[in-house]
Design goal:
By secondary structure, the protein is α/β, with parallel strands linked by helices. About 35% of the residues lie in helices and about 10% in strands.
C-alpha cells in the first residue's frame, strides 16, 4: 500500500487508517476483544500501517487492546492517539499521554492529537498556549513525534497553528458529511496539514448494510447520528441505491467505493473502523481502487440531496 506523508514531518501514513473507537466498546454493541485483536492483525497483514485511537475510547480499553494486538510489531506501525477535552491543562496532558503510552505498551506516539477543542462537552476551557506547551515538551522528550487536532473549526485550527506546528486535522468527512470542504480542506492542503477523515463510511451507512427500517440496538450511539434521523434517512437510502451500480460496475463493495472517494482527495487519509478481520481486509482493498473524474462527478451529484439537508453544524450526532 502506498504511503502518505504526515504534514511537515517524515512520518508516513497508510491512506487507509484503522480506527479503533469501536474497540473501546463504550457506546457500541456486539464488540468482542478477541475479534478486535484479529482485526488489527488482519489490517497489518493487508498493508495498513497506521492505527488511530484515543484515551476516551472505553477509558483506555481501546488503547490496551490495540497495544496487545500489535505486540512485537511496534516498529512496523504508526500509532495515533488523542487527549480528551477534560485533560487539556498542562499536567493533565502529560499524565494523559503517559497513560496512553502505558496502555499501548510503547514509549512514543507518532501523532498525539487534541480530541476536541477546549471547552467541549462542558469541560472548563484551557488556553491553547498551555496545552501546546505540554505537547511541545512531550515532543522534546521524544514521547510524541507530531501534534494534531481533531474536531477543530478552521478558525480554531488557524489560531492554534499560530502557537505551534500542527501536522493534522481530524474532522468527520464522508460522501454524506462534507462540512470540511467549505474552507478547511483547501486551507489544509495549502498549509501542508494532513486531513485524517473519520467516519468516512458515515458510521456504516455507506456500506449499504442498513436498510430503510434499520434499528440500532440499545446503547449504540449511532442511533443519534443525524444521517439516521427521519428527515434525512429516506434521502440517504435513495443515494445508496444510486451508488450501488457504480460499485457493482467496478467489482468492488460499497464500502470500498466510499473509502476510495475520500482518499482520492489530495492530502486526505481515511480512518475506517472495523470489528473483525474480514472488515479490515476489505477496507484495505480500497487503496487499490481508481476513480475517474466521471466517477467522482457522479458520486458528488448523487450525494448532494443528502448533504443539502444538513445544516452548518459539523457535529454528526444529536447529543
Amino acid at each position: 500500500m502506498e504511503s502518505r506523508v504526515l504534514g511537515n514531518t517524515d512520518i508516513h501514513l497508510s491512506p487507509i487508517i484503522m480506527g479503533t473507537w469501536q474497540t473501546g466498546k463504550s457506546m457500541w454493541t456486539g464488540i468482542d476483544d478477541a475479534q478486535s485483536e484479529k482485526a488489527v492483525q488482519a489490517a497489518m497483514d493487508a498493508g495498513i500501517s497506521t492505527f488511530d485511537t484515543a484515551e476516551v475510547y472505553g477509558n483506555g480499553h481501546s488503547e490496551k487492546v490495540l497495544g496487545k494486538a500489535i505486540g512485537s510489531h511496534r516498529q512496523k506501525v504508526v500509532l495515533l492517539s488523542k487527549v480528551f477535552s477534560n485533560h487539556l491543562k498542562y499536567d493533565q496532558v502529560i499524565d494523559a499521554c503517559n497513560r496512553s503510552l502505558k496502555n499501548l505498551g510503547t514509549d512514543y506516539l507518532d501523532l498525539y492529537q487534541i480530541h476536541w477543542p477546549p471547552g467541549a462537552f462542558g469541560a472548563k476551557p484551557v488556553p491553547m498556549e498551555e496545552t501546546m506547551q505540554a505537547l511541545a515538551n512531550l515532543k522534546d522528550q521524544g514521547k510524541i513525534r507530531a501534534i494534531g487536532v481533531s474536531n477543530f473549526s478552521l478558525d480554531q485550527l488557524k489560531s492554534i497553528c499560530e502557537i505551534g506546528p500542527i501536522d493534522s486535522l481530524q474532522p468527520p468527512y464522508s460522501l454524506f458529511w462534507r462540512h470540511v470542504e467549505s474552507e478547511a480542506l483547501a486551507w489544509c492542503r495549502d498549509n501542508r496539514v494532513t486531513v485524517l477523515a473519520y467516519s468516512p463510511l458515515a458510521q456504516g451507512l455507506l456500506t449499504g448494510k442498513f436498510g430503510p427500517d434499520h434499528q440500532f440496538e440499545k446503547g449504540d450511539h449511532r442511533s443519534s447520528n443525524r444521517l439516521f434521523q427521519p428527515d434525512v434517512y429516506p434521502h440517504v437510502q435513495e443515494a445508496l441505491r444510486a451508488l450501488g451500480p457504480i460499485a457493482e460496475k467496478k467489482g468492488i463493495t460499497m464500502a470500498q467505493l466510499a473509502l476510495a472517494w475520500v482518499i482520492a482527495k489530495p492530502g486526505v487519509c481515511a480512518i475506517a473502523g472495523a470489528r473483525n478481520a474480514r472488515q479490515t481486509a476489505d477496507n484495505a482493498k480500497a487503496a487499490d481502487v481508481t476513480l475517474t473524474t466521471s466517477d467522482l462527478d457522479e458520486m458528488d451529484r448523487i450525494s448532494r440531496p443528502v448533504t443539502d439537508l444538513i445544516d452548518d453544524n459539523p457535529v454528526q450526532w444529536k447529543w
